[in-house]
Design brief:
Elements lengths: L17 E3 L1 H6 L5 E6 L9 H14 L9 E5 L7 H7 L22 E7 L4 H9 L3 E5 L11 H11 L3 E2 L8 H18 L16 E5 L4 H13 L5 E7 L42 E5 L1 H13 L7 H15 L4 H4 L5 E6 L10 H8 L5 H10 L3
Parallel strand pairs: 2-10, 3-4, 3-6, 4-5, 7-8, 7-10, 8-9
Antiparallel strand pairs: 1-2
Helix pairs in contact: 2-3, 2-6, 6-7, 8-9
The protein binds 4'-deoxy-4'-aminopyridoxal-5'-phosphate.
């Protein structure tokens, strides 16, 4: 790892570590390398930092975002519309860290930001957005995506009425998958390709399997393109979609639990975003996950690996483990040196007040040590 002074916080977006999940692999009886791409170490704490930076910078280059005039309005995909965007964009008066490189010398440029987000989204996300200076508008979680009162409908209404309003639209913006094709994907490839200083003995030297959840689908589509075009055309890409969402393919997978609400944030939808590739050559296989198995996998990632990840990371891991146990995945699971990369999109600090997390953290069975502490402290 190199250490250097960065020009601004924007330079701390991405460059996240790929970490061995050896203890989980061992507990599950896997011979392959199970590797987690840990995105919460990015400056804003989420995989979404990357696309925010790319979309804003691309819109500036295209002249669509006008400093001092534009108001960035973005529907938050039942998830993080992430920090780099609101951090980069908020408030014209804010000093240089909020601006892109070209704007560093011009402290009077900048954008206001409005985020529309469903009530389901955590308070932590709203608080972080407000702290960064964004306006947040809550919308009913149960509203269909095309209803006027949904976060997408409200964003569209605001854009019409607010002068300078612009929606960068992560659902359709090609810079969403491109951010992953040019940053996240190459980082993963670089980490697994052997160099003279890394041993190749327990690694195939390539990404054999890549597993990720899909919200907009930008992450899985962009990383799949990077891996398949430049590195390993035979990599198996596995998509994870919560029960109640319709993103999985073939459609028959979406029948069980159709229409049900799920608690995990950031993945799944009730329409197909344009940036999600449904081409089986890009995403080879899909799996449906439940809240229960996602949260159980979060618990494992915390307890066994010490990784403070959020709910959708649990979905990705539980999907990966299920795939590795399936007919399709069992040979890879037992292949020493095969690299199975799981994308872990964000951290638990976004969900600290959520009942599912509080239950997991505070209502666990007391450990023998806790019982011992209690008996020491309650001795008369
Ligand atoms: N998990 C979380 C917490 C997210 O915020 C997102 C972004 N939607 C994802 C997973 C999936 O990312 P994408 O939109 O690129 O599919």
């Amino acid at each position: 790892m190199t250490h250097q002074i960065l020009d601004s916080v924007l330079d701390a977006v991405g460059s996240t570590p790929l970490i061995r999940l050896n203890r989980i692999a061992q507990a599950e009886g896997l011979q392959c390398n199970l590797l987690g791409k840990v995105e919460y170490t990015s400056a804003g704490g989420s995989v979404k930092d990357r696309i925010a930076k790319w979309m804003v910078e691309a819109a500036e280059k295209e002249g669509k975002l006008i400093p001092g005039q534009s108001v960035v309005i973005e529907p938050y995909l039942r998830k993080h519309w992430h920090w780099a965007c609101y951090g980069m964009c908020c408030q014209g008066q804010t000093p240089s860290f909020l601006h892109t490189e070209q704007m560093l010398n011009t402290t009077d440029k900048g954008y206001s930001v409005i985020i529309t987000m469903p009530n389901k989204m955590s308070l932590e996300k709203e608080a972080a957005l407000r702290a960064l200076g964004a306006e947040v508008v809550r919308t009913p979680t149960e509203a269909a995506w095309d209803a006027p009162e949904s976060h997408i409908g409200v964003a569209a209404r605001l854009q019409k009425e607010i002068q300078g309003g612009i929606i960068l639209d992560q659902y359709r913006n090609i810079n969403n998958p491109l951010a992953h094709e040019y940053t996240t994907g190459p980082e993963i490839i670089e980490a697994v390709v052997p160099t003279s200083s890394t041993s190749t003995s327990f690694s195939s030297g390539k990404v054999d399997v890549f597993v990720a959840g899909a919200g907009t689908g930008g992450t899985i589509t962009g990383i799949s393109c990077a891996i398949k075009k430049t590195h390993n055309a035979d990599c198996i890409v596995v998509g994870v979609d919560p029960q109640g969402s319709i993103l999985a393919y073939p459609d028959s997978l979406n029948v069980e639990g159709a229409g049900s609400q799920y608690i995990v944030e950031g993945i799944g939808y009730d329409f197909f975003p344009d940036v999600l590739s449904r081409d089986p050559r890009d995403v080879n296989s899909w799996l449906k996950t439940t809240d229960e198995e996602s949260f159980e996998a979060v618990r494992k990632l915390m307890r066994i690996e010490g990784l403070l990840v959020g709910g959708s990371s649990g979905s990705a891991l539980s999907g990966a483990l299920r795939w590795l146990k399936s007919e399709e995945g069992k040979i890879i699971a037992q292949t020493k040196g095969a690299n199975v990369v799981v994308l872990l999109p964000d951290g638990i600090r976004n969900y600290m007040s959520k009942p599912w997390f509080l239950k997991m953290a505070l209502e666990a069975e007391p450990s023998p040590l806790a019982i011992q502490i209690s008996s020491i402290l309650h001795k008369s």
